[in-house]
Q: What sequence folds into this?
């Protein structure tokens, strides 16, 4: 079978627009783009040339010899009804924002605005298929089983749309080909899927909570953002609101203009946060953070990394 269909559920508000950038929509290119990003991030051991070749073989490229993508993504979903949601939940707006009142220079909060979002509980179907199996190398094939693992890891590591690295747009899978399905929810589950792409990951119990980390001793430094570590929180949140609020507070507390460890955006300069926080729903009142830390890849020394600040940010949530 070269096709598989997942029934997905939105577990945190999703700021995902269509081609016009305004109207909400769940488009296959958004899903495929996320899968492409996370595939690349899982393959930090590959050389740049091998990475580009394998990526093009799977996802397509501009080279005539490569041609179109062998991976097809289709979506089916009911009509969207938008809800209004704050993308910065720790800012309440107006004169009563507790965050802004801590700063004497800010008397009125302008960051408590709301944007339209796809609501929690919204369900849609994603159909994935391969036009053919892809021979990565003589001993390795990208088939439908590996495609399933890639999609599940994409759902786990990051959401869709704006603020997806701060918990928004998180998705879980409820059904696989009409059969009930339990989302991977432990590091052991993650490792089973991750091992299909990269054998250099290992468990590290020196962290609390435990982590999956990348053993980098077997290959040189790379200049693109690959996964360095994965952690699933032990702290249980009763609802998504409380978890998103904690993520927002931690981002505010540990981010500043003189440090770029959690991302940066000012005066045309922009760097996405290398620490990606997604939300895992394990039960009716069991929401946990899953944090994936990427290698900070920049062309110069302008953006600095403070590892301790990253750890403080993660520990405040996990």
A:
């Amino acid at each position: 079978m070269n096709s598989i269909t997942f029934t997905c559920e939105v577990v945190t508000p999703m700021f995902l627009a269509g081609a016009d950038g305004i109207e909400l929509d769940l488009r296959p290119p958004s899903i495929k783009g996320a899968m492409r990003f996370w595939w690349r991030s899982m393959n930090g051991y590959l050389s740049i040339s091998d990475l580009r070749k394998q990526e093009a073989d799977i996802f397509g490229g501009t080279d005539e010899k490569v041609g179109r993508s062998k991976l097809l993504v289709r979506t089916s979903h009911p009509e969207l009804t938008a809800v209004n949601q704050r993308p910065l939940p720790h800012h309440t707006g107006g004169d009563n924002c507790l965050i802004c009142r801590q700063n004497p220079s800010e008397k009125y909060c302008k960051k408590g605005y709301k944007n339209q979002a796809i609501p929690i509980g919204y369900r849609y179907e994603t159909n994935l298929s391969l036009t053919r199996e892809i021979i990565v190398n003589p001993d390795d094939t990208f088939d439908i089983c590996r495609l399933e693992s890639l999609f599940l890891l994409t759902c786990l590591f990051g959401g869709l749309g704006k603020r997806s690295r701060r918990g928004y747009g998180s998705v879980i899978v409820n059904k696989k080909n009409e059969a009930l399905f339990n989302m991977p929810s432990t590091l052991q589950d993650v490792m089973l899927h991750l091992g299909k792409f990269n054998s250099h990951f290992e468990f590290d119990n020196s962290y609390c909570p435990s982590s999956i980390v990348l053993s980098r001793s077997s290959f040189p430094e790379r200049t693109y953002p690959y996964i360095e570590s994965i952690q699933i929180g032990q702290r249980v949140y009763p609802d998504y609101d409380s978890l998103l609020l904690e993520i927002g507070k931690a981002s505010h507390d540990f981010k500043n203009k003189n440090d770029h460890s959690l991302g940066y955006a000012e005066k045309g300069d922009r760097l996405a946060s290398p620490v990606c926080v997604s939300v895992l729903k394990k039960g009716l009142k069991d929401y946990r953070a899953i944090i994936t830390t990427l290698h900070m890849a920049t062309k110069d020394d302008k953006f600095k990394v403070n590892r301790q600040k990253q750890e403080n940010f993660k520990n405040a949530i996990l």
